[in-house]
Amino acid sequence: MTSSKINLSQPPKFLSILGAEAVAFDENKESISMNFNIGEDLTHSNGAFVQGGFITAMLDTSMAHLLIFKTNGEYNPLTLNINVNFLSPGTPGKFTASATISKLGKSISFTSAELHQGKSLVATASATNKFLKL
After folding, report:
1. For residue 56, which phi and psi values (nearest 5 degrees)?
2. Is the separation of the CB atoms in 76 and 131 below 8 Å?
3. Which pTM does this prediction carry?
4. Residue 75 CA to its chain's centroid (Å)
5. Alpha carbon of 76 to those of 23, 63, 119: distances in Å?
6. Which of 6, 32, 83, 134 could form a disulfide with 73 if both were Cys (CB 3.0 to 4.6 A apart)?
7. What's the structural domain count of the chain?
């Protein structure tokens, strides 16, 4: 059975793989912050560095979840394009992804995100999303 709305109280299972721990949506600022705890299973180089695909996933997840919360779960934002800039290596441990809305249209949105590990800026991203009505 399909739903006409995303259940915001039941996160998708892949978030547990990414070690998602907390989410904070700020409706007034149109922003979101998500915390992740990445283990050595998502690394390369003998556990030294988090693989870039998982860095990208944390950024993409924060931007998509921002749009899901902004639309009260009525739309699924499909990523049309994502541009990631890797600035410093991420190591196993805690990360914080924060995302904001740059422009919100009727069917297309533009978002940006930053991923920090402690005081280090690990990566930035921007994305274009198309809204899929559920």
Report:
1. -60, -40
2. yes
3. 0.92
4. 16
5. 18, 12, 32
6. 6
7. 1
